[in-house]
DNA sequence: TTACAATTTACTTTTAAGTGAAAATTATTT
DNA sequence: AAATAATTTTCACTTAAAAGTAAATTGTAA
């Protein structure tokens, strides 16, 4: 579905892929959990953004962490987050941190 | 109130000091967040236990972390927890980890 | 044997997480 | 330019789960 050639995906597609409401993606953005590229005012999510979001969901629903905790760990550039993270997600995470 | 000479305090006193219900302390214990000394079947909390509990409360109510996240960090012996922790609390935390 | 602490069960409260709908904004088409 | 379409934003609401607690029961030390 998300091949390597295409570099970005609109919010509705991403929401559908993740099985969540697009409003939830706006919600996460408010918390600075993800920061999709903007062309005009439209959002485009990279493949790494999507992997990152999948990882965040895992932290929430498999580990039981709450958003606030995840954000605290992001801000502290914490090893916990990076530890069991797939390589490309780490990459995305680092890009994400670099941007702020 | 909790001077250095006395080494341990019963649950009701601790609850009152922390401004919480004693049931909440049992609740935290269920999550292995604290592990008071048992003499007979009665619980005795050390000064360090109390400091530790205060720190846990700060993480919850000032930082907005949830119990599950705190527990995850404890299990991973995470730097986040220890970072901004007063020295004696770190000590208590390490004793706590040593016990399990 | 009684008084107090621990335990259990099930309940209440609180709040985070998520969402629906309408309004606003920007882009697109004719 | 007006109409239409698409996306974002806002506001208020719902839902679900975590956190906390009450009450009844059990256990046990003194």
SS content category of chain A: mainly alpha
Helix content of chain A: 55-70%
CATH class of chain A: Mainly Alpha
Indicate the radius of gyration of chain A in whole angstroms. Answer: 13 Å
Q: How many beta-strand runs of chain A?
A: 2
Number of helices of chain A: 6
Strands of the biggest beta sheet of chain A: in what spatial order? 1-2
**Portion in beta strands of chain A:** 5-15%
Kindly report the greatest chain-chain contact and the residue count on each side: A-B, 13 and 13 residues
Question: How many domains in all of chain A?
Answer: 1
Shape of chain A: globular
Order of helices and strands of chain A: HHEEHHHH
Terminal Cα span of chain A: 30 Å
Tell me the major beta sheet of chain A.
Answer: 2 strands, antiparallel
The CATH architecture of chain A can be given as Orthogonal Bundle
Oligomer: homodimer
Question: What do the pLDDT scores of chain A average to?
Answer: 84
**Which segments of chain A are poorly predicted (pLDDT under 50) over 5 or more consecutive residues?**
1-5
CATH topology of chain A: Multidrug-efflux Transporter Regulator, Chain: A, Domain 2
What do these coordinates show?
With 100 residues, the first copy, chain A, is mostly helical. The first copy, chain A, has one domain: Orthogonal Bundle (Multidrug-efflux Transporter Regulator, Chain: A, Domain 2). Helices cover 59% and strands 6% of the residues of chain A. Chain A is built from 6 helices and 2 strands, in the order ααββαααα. Chain A has helices at 11-18, 22-30, 47-61, 67-75, 79-83, 87-99; strands at 37-39, 42-44. A two-stranded antiparallel sheet of chain A has the order 1-2. In chain A, a hairpin with a 2-residue loop joins strand 1 (37-39) and strand 2 (42-44). In chain A, helix 3 packs across helix 6. The radius of gyration of chain A is 13 Å and the shape is globular. The termini of chain A are far apart. Residues 1-5 of chain A have low confidence and may be disordered. The A-B interface holds A 63-66, 68-69, 72-73, 76, 78-80, 83 and B 63-66, 68-69, 72-73, 76, 78-80, 83. Chain A binds a DNA duplex (30 and 30 nucleotides) through residues 10-12, 20-24, 26-27, 40-43, 60, 64, 66-68.
């Amino acid at each position: 579905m998300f091949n390597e050639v295409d570099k970005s995906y609109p919010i509705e597609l991403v929401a559908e892929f993740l099985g969540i409401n697009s409003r939830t993606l706006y919600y996460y953005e408010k918390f600075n959990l993800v920061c999709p590229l903007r062309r005009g005012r439209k959002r485009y999510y990279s493949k790494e953004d999507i992997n990152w979001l999948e990882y965040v969901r895992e932290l929430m629903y498999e580990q039981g962490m709450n958003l606030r905790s995840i954000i605290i760990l992001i801000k502290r550039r914490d090893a916990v987050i990076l530890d069991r993270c797939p390589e490309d997600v780490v990459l995305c995470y680092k890009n994400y941190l670099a941007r702020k």
